[in-house]
Amino acid sequence: MTRDNNYLYHHSGPQNTLCTHGEHMISAFSLNTPPHIIFGPGKLTELEHIIGRFGSHPLLVLGSHSFLQTEHYQLVQRIFSKLGCKNETVHIGSEPSPAMIDAIVAKLTGRGIDLVIAIGGGSTLDSGKAISAMLVEKKEVVRFLEGVGDRTPSGRKIPFIAIPTTSGTGSEATSNAVLSSVGREGFKCSLRHDNYIPNLALVDPRLTLSCPPKLTVACSMDCFTQLVEGYLSTNSSSLSEALALEGIRAVRRSLRVVCSDGTDLPARTDLSYGALLSGIVLSNSGLGTVHGFASVIGGFFAIPHGIICGTLMAPANALTLKNLQMKSADHPALAKYANLGRIFSDQPRKTDAWYQDHFIYELQSLAIELNMPNLSEFGVTTGDIEKIVAKTGNKYNPAQLSKVELTDILLSRISTHCPDNK
To answer: Is 313 strand, coil or helix?
Structure first.
Protein backbone atom coordinates (compact mmCIF):
# COMPACT_ATOMS: atom_id res chain seq x y z
CA MET A 1 0.00 0.00 0.00
CA THR A 2 1.37 3.42 -0.94
CA ARG A 3 1.73 5.71 2.06
CA ASP A 4 3.97 8.52 3.22
CA ASN A 5 5.81 8.20 6.51
CA ASN A 6 3.10 10.04 8.44
CA TYR A 7 0.36 7.63 7.50
CA LEU A 8 1.74 4.16 8.00
CA TYR A 9 -0.88 1.76 9.32
CA HIS A 10 -0.08 0.05 12.61
CA HIS A 11 -2.66 -2.02 14.49
CA SER A 12 -0.89 -1.51 17.79
CA GLY A 13 -0.71 2.27 17.82
CA PRO A 14 -3.45 4.91 18.04
CA GLN A 15 -1.32 7.68 16.53
CA ASN A 16 -3.00 7.49 13.14
CA THR A 17 -6.54 6.89 14.32
CA LEU A 18 -9.16 8.59 12.22
CA CYS A 19 -12.09 7.98 14.52
CA THR A 20 -12.67 6.28 17.84
CA HIS A 21 -15.84 4.86 19.37
CA GLY A 22 -15.23 2.90 22.51
CA GLU A 23 -12.42 0.48 21.64
CA HIS A 24 -13.00 0.57 17.88
CA MET A 25 -10.42 2.42 15.83
CA ILE A 26 -10.05 2.95 12.11
CA SER A 27 -6.49 3.84 11.20
CA ALA A 28 -5.36 5.99 8.31
CA PHE A 29 -4.76 4.26 4.99
CA SER A 30 -4.46 4.88 1.29
CA LEU A 31 -5.80 2.63 -1.46
CA ASN A 32 -4.28 1.56 -4.74
CA THR A 33 -7.56 1.50 -6.60
CA PRO A 34 -8.54 -1.55 -8.63
CA PRO A 35 -9.31 -1.29 -12.34
CA HIS A 36 -12.74 -0.95 -13.86
CA ILE A 37 -14.16 -4.40 -13.15
CA ILE A 38 -16.89 -6.30 -14.96
CA PHE A 39 -17.66 -9.54 -13.10
CA GLY A 40 -20.08 -12.40 -13.62
CA PRO A 41 -20.87 -15.53 -15.62
CA GLY A 42 -21.53 -14.69 -19.27
CA LYS A 43 -19.96 -11.22 -19.09
CA LEU A 44 -17.49 -11.98 -21.89
CA THR A 45 -20.19 -10.82 -24.31
CA GLU A 46 -19.69 -7.26 -23.04
CA LEU A 47 -16.31 -7.17 -24.77
CA GLU A 48 -18.20 -6.04 -27.88
CA HIS A 49 -19.19 -2.80 -26.17
CA ILE A 50 -15.77 -2.21 -24.63
CA ILE A 51 -13.16 -2.58 -27.36
CA GLY A 52 -14.14 0.57 -29.22
CA ARG A 53 -13.30 2.71 -26.19
CA PHE A 54 -9.63 1.77 -26.47
CA GLY A 55 -8.64 0.93 -30.05
CA SER A 56 -9.30 -0.82 -33.35
CA HIS A 57 -6.14 -2.92 -33.85
CA PRO A 58 -5.92 -5.20 -30.81
CA LEU A 59 -3.24 -7.70 -29.91
CA LEU A 60 -4.76 -10.88 -28.47
CA VAL A 61 -2.45 -12.55 -25.95
CA LEU A 62 -3.51 -16.14 -25.30
CA GLY A 63 -2.20 -19.02 -23.21
CA SER A 64 -2.85 -22.60 -24.25
CA HIS A 65 -3.61 -23.33 -27.91
CA SER A 66 -6.58 -25.36 -26.65
CA PHE A 67 -8.39 -22.07 -26.02
CA LEU A 68 -8.73 -21.77 -29.80
CA GLN A 69 -11.18 -24.68 -29.72
CA THR A 70 -13.52 -23.11 -27.17
CA GLU A 71 -16.79 -21.28 -27.63
CA HIS A 72 -15.21 -18.33 -25.84
CA TYR A 73 -12.55 -17.88 -28.52
CA GLN A 74 -15.20 -18.15 -31.22
CA LEU A 75 -17.19 -15.43 -29.44
CA VAL A 76 -14.16 -13.14 -29.32
CA GLN A 77 -13.52 -13.67 -33.03
CA ARG A 78 -17.15 -12.91 -33.86
CA ILE A 79 -16.87 -9.68 -31.87
CA PHE A 80 -13.69 -8.70 -33.74
CA SER A 81 -15.36 -9.47 -37.07
CA LYS A 82 -18.49 -7.51 -36.20
CA LEU A 83 -16.43 -4.49 -35.16
CA GLY A 84 -14.15 -4.76 -38.17
CA CYS A 85 -11.07 -5.15 -35.96
CA LYS A 86 -7.82 -6.31 -37.46
CA ASN A 87 -6.14 -8.29 -34.70
CA GLU A 88 -2.81 -9.98 -34.07
CA THR A 89 -2.37 -13.04 -31.82
CA VAL A 90 0.51 -14.35 -29.71
CA HIS A 91 0.57 -17.43 -27.47
CA ILE A 92 2.27 -17.69 -24.08
CA GLY A 93 3.27 -21.28 -23.38
CA SER A 94 5.03 -20.87 -20.03
CA GLU A 95 5.78 -18.39 -17.27
CA PRO A 96 7.06 -15.31 -19.11
CA SER A 97 10.75 -14.52 -19.24
CA PRO A 98 12.36 -11.20 -20.16
CA ALA A 99 13.68 -12.78 -23.38
CA MET A 100 10.17 -13.91 -24.34
CA ILE A 101 8.69 -10.45 -23.81
CA ASP A 102 11.52 -8.77 -25.72
CA ALA A 103 11.06 -11.12 -28.68
CA ILE A 104 7.31 -10.52 -28.86
CA VAL A 105 7.72 -6.75 -28.59
CA ALA A 106 10.39 -6.73 -31.32
CA LYS A 107 8.07 -8.67 -33.62
CA LEU A 108 5.11 -6.36 -33.01
CA THR A 109 6.86 -2.98 -33.01
CA GLY A 110 5.58 -0.82 -35.84
CA ARG A 111 2.48 -2.96 -36.43
CA GLY A 112 0.07 -0.30 -35.14
CA ILE A 113 -1.15 -2.21 -32.07
CA ASP A 114 -3.38 0.15 -30.07
CA LEU A 115 -4.91 -2.27 -27.54
CA VAL A 116 -3.67 -5.41 -25.76
CA ILE A 117 -6.22 -8.01 -24.64
CA ALA A 118 -4.88 -10.92 -22.59
CA ILE A 119 -7.10 -13.97 -22.10
CA GLY A 120 -5.59 -16.69 -19.94
CA GLY A 121 -4.01 -17.52 -16.62
CA GLY A 122 -1.69 -15.39 -14.55
CA SER A 123 1.30 -15.91 -16.83
CA THR A 124 -0.72 -14.81 -19.84
CA LEU A 125 -2.08 -11.74 -18.08
CA ASP A 126 1.38 -10.79 -16.82
CA SER A 127 2.71 -11.19 -20.36
CA GLY A 128 0.02 -8.95 -21.78
CA LYS A 129 0.69 -6.38 -19.08
CA ALA A 130 4.42 -6.37 -19.85
CA ILE A 131 3.87 -6.24 -23.62
CA SER A 132 1.50 -3.28 -23.33
CA ALA A 133 4.20 -1.39 -21.41
CA MET A 134 7.25 -2.41 -23.43
CA LEU A 135 5.63 -1.57 -26.78
CA VAL A 136 5.88 2.01 -25.51
CA GLU A 137 9.16 1.87 -23.55
CA LYS A 138 11.01 0.21 -26.48
CA LYS A 139 13.88 -1.05 -24.33
CA GLU A 140 14.81 -4.44 -22.89
CA VAL A 141 12.30 -5.26 -20.17
CA VAL A 142 14.96 -6.57 -17.77
CA ARG A 143 16.21 -3.00 -17.38
CA PHE A 144 12.90 -2.08 -15.69
CA LEU A 145 12.57 -5.08 -13.36
CA GLU A 146 12.67 -4.54 -9.60
CA GLY A 147 15.89 -5.79 -8.06
CA VAL A 148 17.79 -6.39 -11.30
CA GLY A 149 17.08 -3.40 -13.55
CA ASP A 150 18.72 0.01 -13.83
CA ARG A 151 15.74 2.07 -14.98
CA THR A 152 12.37 3.15 -13.56
CA PRO A 153 9.33 2.51 -15.78
CA SER A 154 7.67 5.65 -17.12
CA GLY A 155 4.20 4.20 -16.63
CA ARG A 156 3.25 4.78 -20.26
CA LYS A 157 1.54 1.86 -21.95
CA ILE A 158 -0.90 0.76 -24.62
CA PRO A 159 -4.40 0.23 -23.13
CA PHE A 160 -4.70 -3.22 -21.57
CA ILE A 161 -7.71 -5.47 -20.90
CA ALA A 162 -7.26 -8.52 -18.65
CA ILE A 163 -9.60 -11.51 -18.96
CA PRO A 164 -8.61 -14.38 -16.62
CA THR A 165 -9.32 -18.04 -17.38
CA THR A 166 -7.99 -19.27 -14.03
CA SER A 167 -8.59 -18.24 -10.42
CA GLY A 168 -5.15 -17.70 -8.98
CA THR A 169 -2.83 -14.73 -9.25
CA GLY A 170 -5.37 -11.91 -9.30
CA SER A 171 -3.18 -10.29 -11.98
CA GLU A 172 -6.32 -8.74 -13.44
CA ALA A 173 -6.30 -6.36 -10.45
CA THR A 174 -2.58 -5.71 -9.89
CA SER A 175 -0.08 -3.18 -11.18
CA ASN A 176 2.83 -5.57 -11.65
CA ALA A 177 3.85 -8.29 -14.09
CA VAL A 178 6.06 -11.10 -12.79
CA LEU A 179 8.84 -12.25 -15.12
CA SER A 180 11.23 -15.15 -14.51
CA SER A 181 14.65 -16.24 -15.63
CA VAL A 182 15.01 -19.77 -14.29
CA GLY A 183 18.41 -21.27 -13.51
CA ARG A 184 21.38 -21.29 -11.13
CA GLU A 185 21.53 -17.49 -11.19
CA GLY A 186 17.82 -17.15 -11.85
CA PHE A 187 15.36 -14.56 -10.62
CA LYS A 188 11.67 -13.89 -10.44
CA CYS A 189 11.05 -10.14 -10.41
CA SER A 190 8.28 -7.64 -11.09
CA LEU A 191 7.78 -4.98 -13.71
CA ARG A 192 5.77 -2.51 -11.65
CA HIS A 193 4.09 0.86 -12.00
CA ASP A 194 0.75 2.10 -10.70
CA ASN A 195 -0.32 2.79 -14.30
CA TYR A 196 0.22 -0.83 -15.29
CA ILE A 197 -2.97 -1.91 -13.59
CA PRO A 198 -5.33 -3.07 -16.38
CA ASN A 199 -7.66 -0.48 -17.84
CA LEU A 200 -10.37 -3.10 -17.51
CA ALA A 201 -10.69 -6.46 -15.79
CA LEU A 202 -13.40 -8.61 -17.35
CA VAL A 203 -13.93 -11.61 -15.07
CA ASP A 204 -16.27 -14.26 -16.48
CA PRO A 205 -16.14 -17.40 -14.28
CA ARG A 206 -17.45 -19.50 -17.18
CA LEU A 207 -13.99 -19.22 -18.72
CA THR A 208 -12.54 -21.18 -15.78
CA LEU A 209 -14.81 -24.21 -16.20
CA SER A 210 -12.36 -25.97 -18.51
CA CYS A 211 -9.33 -25.35 -16.28
CA PRO A 212 -7.64 -28.76 -15.72
CA PRO A 213 -7.75 -30.26 -12.20
CA LYS A 214 -4.03 -29.92 -11.37
CA LEU A 215 -3.95 -26.33 -12.59
CA THR A 216 -7.13 -25.62 -10.63
CA VAL A 217 -5.46 -26.86 -7.44
CA ALA A 218 -2.32 -24.77 -8.00
CA CYS A 219 -4.25 -21.60 -8.85
CA SER A 220 -6.65 -22.03 -5.94
CA MET A 221 -3.80 -22.36 -3.47
CA ASP A 222 -2.11 -19.25 -4.89
CA CYS A 223 -5.33 -17.28 -4.49
CA PHE A 224 -5.85 -18.61 -0.96
CA THR A 225 -2.26 -17.84 0.05
CA GLN A 226 -2.50 -14.28 -1.21
CA LEU A 227 -5.69 -13.67 0.73
CA VAL A 228 -4.33 -15.13 3.97
CA GLU A 229 -0.95 -13.39 3.72
CA GLY A 230 -2.60 -10.11 2.76
CA TYR A 231 -4.91 -10.38 5.78
CA LEU A 232 -2.06 -11.18 8.17
CA SER A 233 0.28 -8.58 6.67
CA THR A 234 1.77 -5.94 8.95
CA ASN A 235 0.99 -3.51 6.12
CA SER A 236 -2.74 -4.25 6.02
CA SER A 237 -5.56 -1.79 6.68
CA SER A 238 -9.11 -2.20 7.89
CA LEU A 239 -10.27 -2.00 4.27
CA SER A 240 -7.80 -4.53 2.85
CA GLU A 241 -8.55 -6.87 5.76
CA ALA A 242 -12.28 -6.70 5.04
CA LEU A 243 -11.66 -7.56 1.39
CA ALA A 244 -9.32 -10.39 2.36
CA LEU A 245 -11.84 -11.92 4.76
CA GLU A 246 -14.55 -11.71 2.10
CA GLY A 247 -12.29 -13.58 -0.30
CA ILE A 248 -11.26 -16.15 2.31
CA ARG A 249 -14.91 -16.94 3.05
CA ALA A 250 -15.52 -17.51 -0.66
CA VAL A 251 -12.49 -19.81 -0.83
CA ARG A 252 -13.62 -21.69 2.25
CA ARG A 253 -17.02 -22.33 0.66
CA SER A 254 -15.75 -23.53 -2.67
CA LEU A 255 -12.06 -24.47 -2.87
CA ARG A 256 -12.61 -28.14 -2.11
CA VAL A 257 -15.62 -28.17 -4.44
CA VAL A 258 -13.80 -26.84 -7.52
CA CYS A 259 -10.85 -29.13 -6.88
CA SER A 260 -13.17 -32.16 -7.01
CA ASP A 261 -15.77 -30.91 -9.53
CA GLY A 262 -14.50 -28.26 -11.89
CA THR A 263 -17.87 -27.96 -13.64
CA ASP A 264 -19.60 -26.42 -10.61
CA LEU A 265 -20.24 -22.86 -11.82
CA PRO A 266 -21.28 -21.34 -8.45
CA ALA A 267 -18.09 -22.71 -6.89
CA ARG A 268 -16.00 -21.49 -9.83
CA THR A 269 -17.62 -18.08 -9.40
CA ASP A 270 -16.60 -18.04 -5.73
CA LEU A 271 -12.98 -18.78 -6.67
CA SER A 272 -12.97 -16.16 -9.44
CA TYR A 273 -14.27 -13.66 -6.91
CA GLY A 274 -11.66 -14.71 -4.37
CA ALA A 275 -8.84 -14.42 -6.91
CA LEU A 276 -9.98 -10.95 -7.96
CA LEU A 277 -10.07 -9.83 -4.33
CA SER A 278 -6.66 -11.38 -3.71
CA GLY A 279 -5.17 -9.16 -6.40
CA ILE A 280 -6.67 -6.05 -4.84
CA VAL A 281 -5.53 -7.14 -1.37
CA LEU A 282 -1.92 -7.93 -2.31
CA SER A 283 -1.64 -4.62 -4.18
CA ASN A 284 -2.50 -2.80 -0.97
CA SER A 285 -1.13 -5.01 1.81
CA GLY A 286 1.84 -6.86 0.41
CA LEU A 287 2.47 -10.52 1.16
CA GLY A 288 4.38 -12.70 3.62
CA THR A 289 7.01 -15.38 3.93
CA VAL A 290 5.35 -17.95 1.68
CA HIS A 291 5.52 -15.56 -1.26
CA GLY A 292 9.02 -14.58 -0.15
CA PHE A 293 9.97 -18.22 -0.64
CA ALA A 294 7.98 -18.57 -3.87
CA SER A 295 9.73 -15.69 -5.62
CA VAL A 296 13.16 -17.10 -4.82
CA ILE A 297 12.41 -20.78 -5.48
CA GLY A 298 10.61 -19.88 -8.71
CA GLY A 299 13.79 -18.24 -9.98
CA PHE A 300 15.90 -21.32 -9.32
CA PHE A 301 13.45 -24.08 -10.27
CA ALA A 302 10.65 -24.46 -12.81
CA ILE A 303 7.96 -25.14 -10.22
CA PRO A 304 4.39 -23.82 -10.63
CA HIS A 305 3.99 -20.81 -8.36
CA GLY A 306 0.77 -22.07 -6.80
CA ILE A 307 2.38 -25.41 -5.93
CA ILE A 308 5.17 -23.66 -4.02
CA CYS A 309 2.57 -21.64 -2.13
CA GLY A 310 0.35 -24.64 -1.45
CA THR A 311 3.12 -26.85 -0.14
CA LEU A 312 4.61 -24.17 2.16
CA MET A 313 1.40 -22.65 3.54
CA ALA A 314 0.97 -25.02 6.49
CA PRO A 315 4.57 -25.13 7.79
CA ALA A 316 5.15 -21.40 7.27
CA ASN A 317 1.99 -20.43 9.14
CA ALA A 318 2.58 -23.03 11.85
CA LEU A 319 6.00 -21.56 12.62
CA THR A 320 4.75 -17.98 12.35
CA LEU A 321 1.93 -18.73 14.79
CA LYS A 322 4.27 -20.55 17.19
CA ASN A 323 6.68 -17.61 17.06
CA LEU A 324 3.90 -15.15 17.88
CA GLN A 325 2.46 -17.29 20.68
CA MET A 326 5.88 -17.57 22.34
CA LYS A 327 7.15 -14.02 21.89
CA SER A 328 4.21 -11.65 21.37
CA ALA A 329 1.18 -12.64 23.40
CA ASP A 330 -0.64 -9.42 22.49
CA HIS A 331 0.33 -9.32 18.82
CA PRO A 332 -2.70 -8.35 16.67
CA ALA A 333 -1.94 -11.19 14.25
CA LEU A 334 -2.93 -13.70 16.94
CA ALA A 335 -6.48 -12.34 16.86
CA LYS A 336 -6.37 -12.62 13.07
CA TYR A 337 -5.29 -16.26 13.24
CA ALA A 338 -8.21 -16.87 15.58
CA ASN A 339 -10.56 -15.19 13.09
CA LEU A 340 -9.25 -17.47 10.33
CA GLY A 341 -9.85 -20.49 12.53
CA ARG A 342 -13.43 -19.38 13.12
CA ILE A 343 -14.05 -19.11 9.38
CA PHE A 344 -12.88 -22.71 8.95
CA SER A 345 -14.74 -24.10 11.96
CA ASP A 346 -18.34 -24.88 12.80
CA GLN A 347 -17.50 -25.07 16.51
CA PRO A 348 -18.83 -22.13 18.57
CA ARG A 349 -17.47 -20.69 21.81
CA LYS A 350 -13.94 -22.05 21.64
CA THR A 351 -10.89 -20.14 22.86
CA ASP A 352 -8.76 -18.00 20.58
CA ALA A 353 -5.89 -20.47 21.01
CA TRP A 354 -8.14 -23.32 19.87
CA TYR A 355 -9.18 -21.44 16.73
CA GLN A 356 -5.57 -20.50 15.98
CA ASP A 357 -4.47 -24.12 16.13
CA HIS A 358 -7.53 -25.21 14.18
CA PHE A 359 -6.57 -22.98 11.26
CA ILE A 360 -3.15 -24.64 11.08
CA TYR A 361 -4.87 -28.03 11.22
CA GLU A 362 -7.07 -26.98 8.29
CA LEU A 363 -4.02 -25.93 6.26
CA GLN A 364 -2.34 -29.26 6.97
CA SER A 365 -5.49 -31.20 6.06
CA LEU A 366 -5.93 -29.23 2.85
CA ALA A 367 -2.36 -29.96 1.77
CA ILE A 368 -2.99 -33.68 2.27
CA GLU A 369 -6.38 -33.65 0.54
CA LEU A 370 -5.02 -31.79 -2.49
CA ASN A 371 -1.90 -33.97 -2.60
CA MET A 372 0.52 -31.06 -2.40
CA PRO A 373 3.91 -32.39 -3.55
CA ASN A 374 7.18 -31.99 -1.69
CA LEU A 375 9.66 -29.57 -3.20
CA SER A 376 12.06 -32.48 -3.64
CA GLU A 377 9.78 -33.83 -6.37
CA PHE A 378 10.93 -30.86 -8.47
CA GLY A 379 14.62 -31.33 -7.78
CA VAL A 380 15.03 -29.15 -4.68
CA THR A 381 17.50 -30.71 -2.23
CA THR A 382 18.89 -29.84 1.18
CA GLY A 383 21.91 -28.44 -0.66
CA ASP A 384 19.68 -25.68 -2.08
CA ILE A 385 18.34 -24.48 1.25
CA GLU A 386 21.11 -22.03 2.11
CA LYS A 387 20.84 -20.07 -1.14
CA ILE A 388 17.03 -20.01 -0.94
CA VAL A 389 16.97 -18.80 2.67
CA ALA A 390 19.61 -16.15 1.93
CA LYS A 391 17.28 -14.44 -0.55
CA THR A 392 13.89 -15.05 1.11
CA GLY A 393 12.17 -12.00 2.58
CA ASN A 394 9.87 -11.67 5.60
CA LYS A 395 8.89 -8.09 4.83
CA TYR A 396 5.21 -8.07 5.82
CA ASN A 397 5.04 -11.38 7.69
CA PRO A 398 3.61 -10.83 11.20
CA ALA A 399 6.67 -12.56 12.69
CA GLN A 400 10.20 -11.99 11.45
CA LEU A 401 11.36 -15.57 11.12
CA SER A 402 15.02 -16.41 11.63
CA LYS A 403 17.18 -18.22 9.10
CA VAL A 404 16.90 -21.31 11.28
CA GLU A 405 13.09 -21.11 11.17
CA LEU A 406 13.09 -20.53 7.41
CA THR A 407 15.35 -23.56 7.05
CA ASP A 408 12.97 -25.66 9.14
CA ILE A 409 10.06 -24.69 6.88
CA LEU A 410 11.94 -25.85 3.79
CA LEU A 411 13.18 -29.04 5.45
CA SER A 412 9.59 -29.99 6.25
CA ARG A 413 8.82 -30.01 2.50
CA ILE A 414 12.03 -31.61 1.22
CA SER A 415 12.21 -35.38 1.43
CA THR A 416 15.02 -36.54 3.71
CA HIS A 417 15.46 -39.48 1.32
CA CYS A 418 16.22 -37.19 -1.62
CA PRO A 419 19.99 -37.29 -2.31
CA ASP A 420 21.89 -34.02 -2.14
CA ASN A 421 23.15 -33.49 -5.65
CA LYS A 422 25.21 -30.44 -4.85
So the answer is: helix
**Phi/psi at 282 (5° precision):** -65, -30
∠ Cα 151 233 252 (to 5°):
115
- Domain annotation for the chain: domains and CATH numbers: 1-30 (no CATH), 39-208 (3.40.50.1970), 213-411 (1.20.1090.10)
Which residues face 163 on adjacent strands? Answer: 119
Model confidence pLDDT, tens digit, residues 364-393: 999 999 999 999 999 999 999 999 999 999
Query: Residue 19: beta bridge partners?
Result: 26
Q: How far is it, in rounded angstroms, from Cα 377 to Cα 128?
A: 31
Helices 305-327 and 332-343 pack at an angle, to 10 degrees, of: 130
Q: Which of 65, 64, 104 has the alpha carbon at shortest distance from 88?
A: 104
Q: What is the dihedral of CA 275, 277, 283, 286, to 10 degrees?
A: -80
Residues 200-215 have pLDDT tens digits of 999 999 999 999 999 9
Helix (H) or strand (E) holding 222: helix 213-232
pTM over 0.85: yes
**Is the C-alpha dihedral spanning 220, 222, 223, 228 positive or negative?**
positive
Residue among 304, 299, 267, 305 at smallest CA distance from 392: 299
Residue 373 carries which DSSP code? Answer: P
Own/partner contacts of 86-91, CB < 8 Å, gap of 24 or more, are 86/56, 86/57, 87/57, 87/58, 87/59, 87/60, 88/57, 88/58, 88/59, 88/60, 88/113, 89/59, 89/60, 89/61, 89/62, 90/59, 90/60, 90/61, 90/62, 90/131, 91/62, 91/63, 91/64, 91/65
Three-class SS of residue 24?
strand
Coil, strand or helix: which one is 160?
strand
- Give per-residue pLDDT as tens, 20-67: 455 567 888 888 878 899 999 999 999 999 999 999 999 999 998 889
Q: Are β-strands 160-164 and 176-181 bridged in parallel, bridged antiparallel, or unpaired?
A: unpaired
CB 236 within 8 A of CB 285: yes
Residue-wise burial string across 246-266, b where 16 or more C-beta atoms lie within 10 A, e elsewhere: ebbbbbbebbeebbeebeeee
User: What span, in angstroms and rounded, lies between the C-alpha atoms of 214 and 199?
Assistant: 30
Q: How far apart are CA 268 and CA 128, in angstroms?
A: 24
